[in-house]
Write a structure and sequence with these properties.
Chain B: Keywords: Acetylation, ATP synthesis, CF(0), Coiled coil, Hydrogen ion transport, Ion transport, Membrane, Mitochondrion, Mitochondrion inner membrane, Transport. Chain B: Pfam families: ATP-synt_E (PF05680). Chain B: GO terms for molecular function: proton transmembrane transporter activity. The complex is a heterodimer of chains A (103) and B (94). Chain A is 76% helix and 0% strand. Chain A is built from three helices and no strands. The longest helix of chain A has 36 residues. Chain A starts with a helix and ends in an 8-residue tail after the last helix. With 94 residues, chain B is an all-alpha fold. Chain B is built from two helices and no strands. Classes of the chains: A mainly alpha (103), B mainly alpha (94).
Chain lengths: 103, 94
């Protein structure tokens, strides 16, 4: 029993090294996308966002929204879902708990 | 072409061009829009969570207080009922 524990403890550094080498490229790709997408928008980028919203509104009004391909609609749906999830993350932060309100 | 035909042509051209523009801009991903949307939803969510928590907290405390008072009354009544039941049953297995 003690020998098994010693062997396990001796293996931990190699496990940590393996985890690091496994996760480094994935962390690199994650960072690469996060730098583009997750940073807060600089004040220069907010007008572009407003233009984007106006485009969507005119698209709805002109009926062009019915001409999106299924691929585009699926992609837009995924993006909208992800944006909605940030609302729930914010709600969890505001209420101080993950599941339910701690009243 | 008379005046009205020209106007119709202009309006149709404008419609075509605006449809094309809107098509192009929805096909491209507007990253600043996503960023602002994400962060604004995060902040709105935080506000909403805090507001809801502040709304629910006093109500939950009130409910707990009311529940405790009712529980006390109920327990007393149960005790009385049990005492009555014990006094009024007549078995010889005591």
């Amino acid at each position: 029993m003690a020998q098994a524990v010693q062997k396990l403890v001796a293996k931990v550094p190699t496990l940590i090294g393996a985890a690091a080498t496994y996760s480094k490229p994935r962390l690199a790709t994650f960072w690469h996308y996060a730098k583009v997408e997750l940073v807060p928008p600089s004040p220069a980028e907010i007008p572009q966002a407003i233009i984007g919203i106006k485009n969507i509104v005119t698209g709805v009004n002109s009926g062009r929204l019915g001409q999106t391909t299924v691929k585009d609609a699926f992609r837009n749906g995924l993006v909208c879902t992800e944006v909605m999830m940030w609302f729930y993350i914010g709600e969890c932060i505001g209420k101080g708990g993950i599941v339910g309100y701690a009243v | 072409m008379n005046y009205y035909a020209k106007r119709r042509l202009k309006v149709n051209q404008f419609r075509q061009r605006s449809i094309l523009l809107n098509w192009v801009t929805l096909n491209q991903l507007n990253f600043p829009l996503f960023q602002t949307a994400r962060w604004s939803f995060l902040l709105i969510g935080m506000f909403y969570g805090k507001q809801r928590y502040d709304y629910l907290k006093p109500r939950a405390e009130e409910e707990r207080r009311v529940e405790e008072a009712e529980k006390k009354i109920r327990e007393e009544q149960e005790k009385i009922a049990k005492a009555l039941a014990e006094a009024s049953e007549d078995t010889i297995l005591k």
